[in-house]
Amino acid sequence: MSEYYEYELTIDKILDTGVKSFPDREIVYRDVRRYTFSSFADSVRRLMSGLKKLGVKEGETVGVIDWDTDVYLHSYYAIPMLGSVLHTVNIRYPPEIILKTILQAEDKYLIVRDEFLPLLEKAKNLLPVGMKIITYSDSKEKVRSNISDADFWELIDSSEPSEIPQVSENSRATIFFTSGTTGDPKGVWFTHRKLVLHALSVSLVGARPPLNVTTNDVYLILVPMFHVHSWGYPYVFMLSGIKYVLPGKYDYGLILKLMDKERVTFSAMVPTILYFIITHPEAQNYLHVFKRWKVIIGGSALPEGLARKAKELGITIICGYGLSETCPVLTVSYYNSLVENLDENKKFLEQITAGTPIPLVQLRIVDPVSGEEKKVNEIGEIVVRSPWLTKEYYKDPEKTKALWRGGWLHTGDLGYIDEYGYVHIVDREKDAIKSGGEFIPSLLLENVISLYPKVSQVAVVGRKDEKWGERPIAFIVPKEPITEEELRNFLLEMSNQGKIQKWWIPDKFIFIQSMPLTSTNKIDKKILRDLANKSM
Amino acid sequence: MSEYYEYELTIDKILDTGVKSFPDREIVYRDVRRYTFSSFADSVRRLMSGLKKLGVKEGETVGVIDWDTDVYLHSYYAIPMLGSVLHTVNIRYPPEIILKTILQAEDKYLIVRDEFLPLLEKAKNLLPVGMKIITYSDSKEKVRSNISDADFWELIDSSEPSEIPQVSENSRATIFFTSGTTGDPKGVWFTHRKLVLHALSVSLVGARPPLNVTTNDVYLILVPMFHVHSWGYPYVFMLSGIKYVLPGKYDYGLILKLMDKERVTFSAMVPTILYFIITHPEAQNYLHVFKRWKVIIGGSALPEGLARKAKELGITIICGYGLSETCPVLTVSYYNSLVENLDENKKFLEQITAGTPIPLVQLRIVDPVSGEEKKVNEIGEIVVRSPWLTKEYYKDPEKTKALWRGGWLHTGDLGYIDEYGYVHIVDREKDAIKSGGEFIPSLLLENVISLYPKVSQVAVVGRKDEKWGERPIAFIVPKEPITEEELRNFLLEMSNQGKIQKWWIPDKFIFIQSMPLTSTNKIDKKILRDLANKSM
């Protein structure tokens, strides 16, 4: 009998790959702790032993409630490597939703940072019987709490490095819940195989122009670790041999300091966070840092105004697109062969689209009703296939059926593919404004409004209208006082230039101090829509 | 019921990835024909239809007898994409062995370039009953032969593009035979999944320093397409979006012209071919081409002398290592974190080792007898695991068992891992010279001899010796006349400097005009060993 080894695509292979080729590459958690890939791997294997001793078994789910810390990074490896399931708990949810997701995911263990303990202490009676809670503090001092069953650091310090058990590549590695602005959170989950293939493909496009990421770059990741695997970077950096900087809870002053000190060259984030960083009062002291900074923007569309401001600072900026359901990355706006020789401004305009499919992703624009494929520049629903899409909404066959109808994952996003092969998202299907039987692409409209110099942020939503069905209402955070009239004149001019349709111009402009945000720092259009309809 | 789409890692996904993002990227076959990725994919899909019409079915094997042409490249895609199996026939074998491999692989169809037809016409009666032969000429003129059943170009021109059938990622995509210098050729085969994962990992390391390959590079591949998938590049270039140049039959004058005209920046080859190119009479006219040239050397060890000569010409050179059994790539000498900050000369010395594992490869040095893992710098047998190793020797359970003993693929190569994590091959186990109970690492010894300025090429083999078991004999191709005495003095000096052991110095130096080569252009040590033993 042959003893052929069936190589499975499991998370331990990523760790092994990183450690073997980049043993002394660093992982930095704020100014709190530093690891090399090698010492980190050792620590992960000790945690595996500690978790086993505590009783964690294959197939059981372990939730984590934390900021972007070294503890979280340990969990990204140790838990799946045991054959257990990592539940990245969304800490931006209201407490009752957090508890609901913990119950839904059937967490048997929770790893909790000390500052989140009050939340659990209050809800103690609602936690499942037998659940074990592992607590920790940054200082490694033992946490005093009557609901703590074990100390995270002690689990590591009192254990020998574990052997690596054989795990099936098709077993579940992670679970988390989509932000659910449209109803109850839905669970999505991913296998080892999906995470490994996603990391390979995302690594590959990072090296393409204009980012040209190499092993000498330094990541500081600004996508929360509870948010779709931080877009895969906790695995990508290890596979790619790149130094990794963890910022903890986002404090933009500290982030600027970290970027300087650790020589950060690369980050990924939602537009709001880019906005916070480059408009930070201390930003002027970090211009040298911005000059070497490469940024991938995703999560929501990047307004052209913000993109130009970033470009002026010397930041190289591209965009990506994906969903919780898609692991997440589907497209990135690296230069394909059609764009690489365009002039700088045209290239830039493609860079700030949602991008072009990354290796192994198949993407189509289809008619939301008939399913027929659309032509270049025609708006329709984005549907996809790739090796890393969620198989289902956890225990929800009804919604799963809708998600996967016709053998394609339905993103629920409306968009088109331009003549260069780049995707433009014009709307979430649920945010779409339908007026007089026609769609008004709110993201496109917002983009044009954002070009007005006095506009800081903008969001357009639909308000019910007896005559037209819906009409657009714009919410504006101004940089300096603006009148409705000057904005309307600006948009008329834009419509004369052919950039928008005249009938898209919003019926009303509402000026507010700041945008309501979802748990993942995107503008919460549900709240704005409610507001718009109440203000009729 | 959910219509979840189980995404399989199949060859069609590589083609789709290339075409979607790099539709106008070029494929060039000599000065004969040019394609874009897009027109090539269309042509592949027409060929699929043509082959189906001819009767080619899922699971059936199609052999190809050809140089590195556009026809061969079609076959790399169209045949596996039908669910059929591509047999890359080794045309460097003697005719009777070629026939043997065709029978062993159970080829039902053969695609044959016109100039190879005489070989088959002579052996007509030995071909399996019912075998169909597809012929072609470069000029697209129909080939006159009474054994031709179809014309390749007609299959394409008379067909509509085929749909892409669903193929399992675990089905066989390719088969070929190892060069078998030690006996009968052994068949190895690879699934779609293995080829896709190999292409992903090889693409990833290409982007690392010092090569820094990007989508703007231009490959000219100098690894024959019958030889271990041309090291995977016929898939890598498409996945990576890189222009691809096919040289046909290797004519070094023409290759130099092509490199200039097509602005080639990147190639892979065995050392012998690098030697032929840089010592070509016209090489002096192409110095500007060498200056931008990045080269991966594999197949056999790169002598330091040749490497330094290439470096002087401005060629960026790194090495790789792998076997027919391993798809082939296992290691590449990109810069890992331990090497990237060394001084230039130390870096260079690591660049010309066999390299460090590429992503997902696990590699160990073990004692050939006990299987115990060796320490840094200790010589032992190289054993590996990766997602792209052959599952077996085709229909040879005995040899398969030996290949896979203990759950690791045994390479049969002796080597060690240095303190930076780079593999040094010191010998093929079968080429090893055992003298007085100790190994003389012939590759290391050859390397030192190659440093003597008057030496052009060198190979050291063992000659039977009554007292010592074996003693080393050196075969030398001189640049200018050398005496045995001056070489012996040089090696004594090297031994004084601690570079070799004194007792390694060969008993005899035999000066020859050129090295005998195997079918894959490596130095044929079997012939030299026979010669050494006859010359006693």
Content of β-strand of chain A: 15-25%
Biggest sheet strand order of chain A reads 7-6-5-3-4-8-9
Shape-level CATH architecture of the domain at 34-184 in chain A: 3-Layer(aba) Sandwich
Helix content of chain A: 25-40%
Q: List low-pLDDT spans of chain A.
A: none
Characterize the structure shown.
Chains A, B: Its EC number is 6.2.1.20. Chains A, B: One of its GO terms (molecular function) is long-chain fatty acid [acyl-carrier-protein] ligase activity. Chains A, B: Residues 445-522 form the AMP-binding enzyme C-terminal domain. Chains A, B: InterPro entries: AMP-bd_C, AMP-bd_C_sf, AMP-binding_CS, AMP-dep_synth/lig_dom, ANL_N_sf, ATP-dep_AMP-bd_enzyme. Two copies of one chain form a homodimer. Chain A has 536 residues and is an alpha/beta fold. In chain A, helix 1 (11-21) packs parallel to helix 8. Chain A is globular, with a radius of gyration of 23 Å. Among the domains of chain A are: 34-184, Rossmann fold (3-Layer(aba) Sandwich); 433-534, GMP Synthetase, Chain A, domain 3 (2-Layer Sandwich), CATH 3.30.300.30. The first copy, chain A, starts with 10 loop residues before the first helix and ends with a helix. The mean pLDDT of chain A is 93. In chain A, 31% of the residues lie in helices and 24% in strands. The first copy, chain A, has 17 helices and 25 strands. At the A-B interface, helix 1, helix 7, strand 16 and helix 14 of A face helix 1, helix 7, strand 16 and helix 14 of B.
